[in-house]
Amino acid sequence: NFTYLTRMPTSKPRERWADEACFEVNRERMHVPLRAYESRAAVLGRRLCDELPAGPWLLALTPARWSFSLASKPADAPSVSGPGGFEAAGWGDLQVPCSWEVAGVGSKPVYLNERYPFKLDPPRVPTDERNEVGSYQVSFTLPARWIGRRSYLVLDGLGSAATVWIDGAEVGYSQDSRLPAEFEVTKLVSAEGMSASEHILSVQVVRYSDGSYLEDQDQWWLSGIQRHCFLYSKPARLAIRDFAVSTTVPPSGATADFSLDVALAGSIVDAAATDTAAAAKAFSESGLAVRASLHGPFRLGRQQDLEAPLPACSEAWAATLAPPTLAEDVD
Fold first, then answer.
1. With contact defined as beta carbons under 8 Å apart, do 171 and 153 qualify?
2. Can you name the residues that pair with 257 across neighbouring β-strands?
3. Beta 315-316 vs 293-294: how paired, if at all?
């Protein structure tokens, strides 16, 4: 006679929004705000108050009315089914961006200044009617000229955690109500060989997540897509993905060191990770070039002290590249 012993799981896996070890899936690293412009004139002509600059490399998804459905608790939330995303027949719509409480849907807005809106039991959050789930859906069509370039989806503010799909395929997951959620979606919408067609964007937002424990403060608790959503396009071979500026001023204040660090992304950068020589060759043959490097010295001081002409600044071209008219700018 044989006796077989099996160990039964003590609990099922936690949902991502209740798992303190998971706060993002496939989300891009945080970086400075990035846009994509057609020309230098378009960049210089932009006003600081412009939220989303118009142009051929940016597709705004908001402000607009999206299909919307609110479930009273996570167990009642709909599931994505196939390339069409949610079965949204019979849904209403909601203005985006806008918290659903402000729109008068579901629970009323909650204001608290010293306690949580749910029982303290980190990382657990309610799974009952206090934790509503909003499901959103909208369609979009990319311009044909985006095909073959890198495409990024940005949702500038989601409260408190969200999962994103395009055409039924999961794009990623994000927590943090005060930071943007950005995902590269090239393979889903603009890869080489694809055609410009309509796509379905589906987003599901959970009102409370384990991240809510860190976000609690003297505030209104509001949920949903709270800031603008858009797609933008970058060149596939080489593009700026981040930059940082720092300045060091000595105690005398007579001089200063200015440093600009730029992070690049693209097929040339990807190739450099495995074969530097091949990447250099690809860069040389791409029609891209380093325009110029500007070197000091520069001086800081009072206006009357700066009337004398500054020393001439040198322009240093890349050793192996002439300064041609660029076939494609690094934007």
1. yes
2. 248
3. antiparallel
